[in-house]
Amino acid sequence: MIAYIRRHLGWKIFLSYMFVILTGILFLRLSAEYVIPTAFEQHLAAMERMMGGMMPGAGNGLETDLFTSFRDAFNQALTRAALAAFAAASLLSLFISSRVVKPVQEMMQASRRIAEGHFRERVQVSGDIEQADELSQLAISFNRMAEQLAQNEALRQRLIGDVTHELRTPLSTIKGSMEGLMDGVLPETAETYQKIYHEADRLARLVEDLQQLSRVEAEAYTLDRKPVQIATLVHRAVGRLGQQYEEKEVGLRVKIPSDLPAVDVDDDRMEQVLMNVVGNALQYTPAGGEVEVSAHREGRFVHVDVRDDGIGVPLEHQPHIFTRFYRVDKSRSRASGGSGIGLTIARYLVEAHGGEIWVESAGRGQGSTFTFSLPVSPE
Ligand code: ADP
Questions:
Q1: Do 211 and 92 belong together in one domain?
Q2: Same domain? 176 vs 92
Q3: Is the CB of 318 under 6 A from ligand 1?
Q4: CA 104 to ligand 1 centroid distance, Å
Q5: I need a surface site. Which of 136, 147, 164, 229 has the fewest CB within 10 A?
Q6: What is the pTM (predicted TM-score) of this model?
Q7: Could you give the C-alpha distances from 1 to 5, 13, 86, 91, 323, in angstroms and in order?
Q8: How does pLDDT run along the chain (379 residues), one tens digit per residue?
Q9: How far is the CA of 304 from the centre of ligand 1 (A)?
Q10: 342 within a domain of the structure (yes/no)
Q11: Is residue 120 part of a domain?
Q12: Does the beta carbon of 367 sit less than 6 angstroms from any atom of ligand 1?
């Protein structure tokens, strides 16, 4: 029985009411026994004095009679009050149970169903949301949590779908080429081996990108921030990409004012962002094009612009290109080894520094400008 009560909030509420009522009754009874007779006696004696012996001999007998009938009436009233209080307590605890225990039980069941993988489960929020009490607020938070879980689950499933899709293409090319070689359908030339190598290389890069993505998404890295001149980072990245620019015959200019303040960043991570954005500018700019990297101060931030006159980003794609696996032209990007992860990693890294990254482009063939902001170092 005790174990049963312990597990049920409704019973606990009922018993706590009972306890309060019984305590009240007990104290009333004790007062009736010890306080009222004395007060009664004093009151009657005063009355007798006032009447000045108008009722000789009536004294003690009348007093006892009066007191007995008063006590009976008092006890009767107390019994009725107790019964009414018990009834009210029962009704009230039933009411509170339905208002408190029921929603809690619903939430308990919903959380069990969510744990079993039914992410669409929600609980009902009763009453006006503006004037929500703690229970309704708990229900709102619960639903919000369920929504977030559902979103995470959808993201996870999409990620698995995307990764499978990304892996399938190079794997089937490798498999097809190997089969062709084994059957003697494909010639054993350097070109065939190069094609296979190229696909395997793409797979390796994809796996590396995915590993990095999962690390930045899970924030499983530390930022080693210190004051750095943005020009230093830009020149480092440009130096590493210079040869590829020359080979493709795309011009690369750097225009950074010398009085720019230092930025507060992890230089390795920022170099990674620059390599990605300046590398993309090269990839999506045809031979003969121009790329310019510039920087300027905007309040507490330094803005870095990477402008190219390449293929541009159509307006409808602009909000999506910082989302993983999103590519404007899938076949073109895939052919050049792009996995659509680079800008996603760049966005995470820039945001981890408190900055933002965005693109501006007038549309297809109009070139694009990628800009990211970095906080000025306080020193
Ligand atoms: P990818 O590895 O495919 O380049 P990113 O995440 O770096 O992946 O870029 C995502 C997509 O954004 C690219 O596939 C491309 O469609 C578009 N994009 C990125 N940079 C440029 C650019 N400078 N000009 C035009 N499109 C770009």
A1: no
A2: no
A3: no
A4: 49
A5: 164
A6: 0.66
A7: 6, 16, 21, 22, 58
A8: 777 777 778 888 888 888 998 998 898 888 888 887 787 778 878 887 887 655 555 556 777 787 788 888 888 988 898 899 889 988 988 888 888 888 888 899 999 999 998 888 898 887 776 777 888 888 899 999 999 898 888 878 888 888 888 888 889 999 999 999 999 999 999 999 999 999 999 899 889 888 999 888 888 888 999 999 999 999 999 999 999 999 999 999 999 999 999 999 999 999 999 999 999 999 999 999 999 999 999 999 999 999 999 999 999 999 889 988 888 876 655 556 577 899 999 999 999 999 999 999 998 999 999 999 999 998 7
A9: 17
A10: yes
A11: no
A12: no
298 Cα–ligand 1 center, Å? 26
103 and 178 share a domain? no
Is the Cβ atom of 275 under 6 angstroms away from ligand 1? no
The answer to whether the CB of 279 is under 6 A from ligand 1 is no
Domain count, the chain: 3
Question: Does ligand 1 have an atom closer than 6 angstroms to the CB of 310?
Answer: yes
Ligand 1: which of 206, 248, 280, 333 to mutate, judged by most atoms within 8 Å of the beta carbon?
280
* Beta strands 368-375 and 290-298, pairing class: unpaired
Q: How far is the CA of 340 from the centre of ligand 1 (A)?
A: 7
Domain boundaries, position 52: 2-115
What gap in Å lies between CA 263 and CA 374, rounded to an integer? 6
Ligand 1 mean position, distance from CA 303 (Å): 20
Structure tokens at 18: 């009972």
Protein residue whose Cα sits closest to atom 23 of ligand 1? 281
231 shares its domain with 269 = yes
CATH number, domain containing residue 328:
3.30.565.10
| Residues 83 and 179 both lie in one domain | no
Cα–Cα nearest to 350, from 223, 203, 179: 223
Element (H, E) at 295: strand 290-298
- φ, ψ for residue 361 (rounded to 5)? -155, 140
Task: Decide if 124 is inside a domain.
Answer: no
291 CB less than 6 Å from ligand 1?
A: no
94, two tokens: 């039933």
Return the CATH number at 157: 1.10.287.130
- Non-local CB neighbours of 8 within 8 Å, separated by 6+ positions: 101
Report how far ligand 1's centroid is from the alpha carbon of 167 (Å).
19
